[in-house]
UniProtKB/TrEMBL annotation:
Catalytic activity, reaction form: L-homoserine + NADP(+) = L-aspartate 4-semialdehyde + NADPH + H(+); L-homoserine + NAD(+) = L-aspartate 4-semialdehyde + NADH + H(+)
Cofactor(s) required for function per UniProt: a metal cation
Keyword flag Amino-acid biosynthesis: yes
InterPro entries in UniProt: ACT_dom (IPR002912), Asp/hSer_DH_NAD-bd (IPR005106), HDH (IPR016204), HDH_cat (IPR001342), HDH_CS (IPR019811)
A Pfam family this chain is assigned to: Homoserine_dh
PANTHER family listed in its UniProt record: HOMOSERINE DEHYDROGENASE (PTHR43331:SF1)
Name listed for the protein in its UniProt record: Homoserine dehydrogenase
E.C. number(s) listed in UniProt: 1.1.1.3
Function: Catalyzes the conversion of L-aspartate-beta-semialdehyde (L-Asa) to L-homoserine (L-Hse), the third step in the biosynthesis of threonine and methionine from aspartate.
Annotated source species: Nocardioides panacis
Assigned protein family: Belongs to the homoserine dehydrogenase family.
Length: 436
């Protein structure tokens, strides 16, 4: 039922997979509410897919499906386009064509925004159309709008969070059920959490793209995925998870973005890597595919955003929220805040970052080894917080946790230890975050 007297807004959907099919479902189930909130009916006029005959989670009238995505976004009568194909191409060309043809765009595509957001924002500005992307970071959690709008008058210093649902799901199951990596990854894929190529999740590319987007918004600069230091979870072993448990900690894949003083003024650092965090830290209780983002700003202090970080339905909720906003803007002939005027801050290298290391060494079981290990740390200016011996004889292991030092000094220490004759193996190295 059209509860508005205004002409319907014409919407094209690009992609109808995990997210797109839930967008279709919500558009249908909440049609009247959406019309009431927007001020006009949103009419779905086409859905671009690769395989039109595939069975989908939502019923899509066959006549709306097309494999001609270019033809769909070029038709010239669209008001709104939702892009949920993912990846760089053809998504970038399709979004640019949609904007050039007068449509406002909502996308969930963090990979594209983190690689070439500046081209897209410039195109949106030129076309005088909106480009919204709340779903691109942390699924259903409202984090883009708070950073772009609510905190625009404050100075954000740090953003720290768990922003990938798939890896959090895997690490959580490894910790709580002792599950194997491959088996849990398959489960995450079946639940629609993982990217089309799950390497993007497992190797930290997805989280790095989200970190780039968060850093850009938080610090009003342009940070790309290539600027973000990245390590994934493929090297995290059951024994790393067990070591964390011994320290009353858990392993999480963290994204950390900071505004720092650089040699030439304000500078940013952005990194994604697994880290041990104490079980008492709020991020340790983020379970399954949930995400959480802490924002620290000068005036507001600490803010925490928490919720489902992946999955078709939660992500579609964020897409629909954007859709209502851009539709309202469209009807009122206005645009939301643009991002094309961001300045360029220096991006600091990972080596300058202050962090702590947890290092497990298989060593000779003889007098003097402990002192020699402490000496190796001291030679790089790194002090040790705790050291613990586990096992004896051939199984002797030292587990060292450092105090805070630069990542460069810590990684040089580890390289140095690898070369020492009393060290048989450096069996585990992991950063420690979330406490002093
Ligand atoms: N899944 C999630 O939890 C989240 C995903 N996102 C982002 O949302 C986007 C979509 O993700 P998701 O739904 O999981 O991905 P899926 O792989 O499930 O769906 C992708 C859709 O795009 C279609 N498609 C692929 N290539 C083309 C093409 N060349 N032309 C037309 N259609 C094409 C596919 O068609 P067909 O079905 O015929 O194969 C499919 O319907 C991505 O950018 C992702 O990063 C963001 C937050 C969470
Ligand atoms: N693959 C992503 C989906 C949401 O962004 C994730 O697991 O977080």
């Amino acid at each position: 039922m059209n509860t508005s007297s205004r002409k319907p807004l014409r919407l094209a959907l690009l992609g109808c997979g995990s997210v797109g099919s839930q967008v279709v479902r919500l558009l249908r189930e909440q049609a009247d509410d959406l019309t009431a909130r927007t001020g006009a009916e949103i009419e779905l006029v086409g859905v671009a897919v690769r395989r039109p005959d595939l069975q989908r989670d939502a019923e899509v009238p066959r006549e709306l499906l097309t494999t001609d995505a270019v033809g769909l976004v070029s038709r010239g009568d669209l008001d709104l386009v939702v892009e949920v194909i993912g990846g760089i191409e053809p998504a970038r060309s399709l979004i640019l064509t949609a904007l050039e043809n007068g449509a406002s765009v909502v996308t969930a595509n963090k990979a594209l925004l983190a690689e070439d957001g500046s081209t897209l924002f410039a195109a949106a500005e030129k076309a005088n159309r909106d480009l919204y992307y709340e779903a691109a970071v942390a699924g259903a959690i409202p984090i883009i709008r708070p950073l772009r709008e609510s905190l625009a008058g404050d100075r954000v210093r740090r953003v720290l969070g768990i922003v990938n649902g798939t890896t959090n799901f895997i690490l959580d199951k490894m910790d709580t059920l002792g599950s194997g990596f491959a088996e849990v990854l398959e489960e995450a894929q079946a639940l629609g959490y993982a990217e089309a190529d799950p390497t993007a999740d497992v190797e930290g590319y997805d989280a790095a793209a989200k970190a780039a987007i968060l850093a850009s918004l938080a610090f009003h600069t342009r940070v790309t995925a290539a600027d973000v230091y990245r390590e994934g979870i493929s090297e995290v072993s059951a024994s790393d998870v067990a070591s964390a448990r011994d320290m009353d900690s858990v392993v999480k894949l963290l994204a950390i973005c900071e505004l720092r003083d650089g040699p030439n003024g304000p500078a940013v650092s952005a990194r994604v890597h697994p880290a041990m965090i104490p079980r008492s830290h709020p991020l340790a209780s983020v379970r399954g595919a949930y995400n959480a983002v802490f924002v620290e700003s000068e005036a507001a202090g600490q803010l925490m955003f928490y919720g489902p970080g992946a999955g078709g339905s939660p992500t579609a909720s964020a897409v629909l929220g954007d859709l209502v906003t851009v539709a309202r803007n469209r009807l009122n002939d206005v645009r939301g805040p643009g991002e094309s005027a961001y300045a360029q801050c220096e991006v600091l290298p990972m080596g300058d970052t202050l962090t702590r290391y947890h290092v497990a060494l298989d060593v000779d079981d003889r007098t003097g080894v402990l002192a020699a290990v402490a000496q190796a740390f001291a030679e790089h200016g790194v002090s040790i917080q705790t050291v613990r011996q586990e096992g004896h004889g051939d199984d002797a292991q030292l587990v060292v946790v450092s105090h805070r030092a630069t990542d460069a000094a810590l990684s040089a220490t580890v390289e140095d230890l690898r070369a020492r004759d009393f060290v048989h193996d450096v069996s585990s190295v992991m950063r420690v975050e979330g406490d002093s």
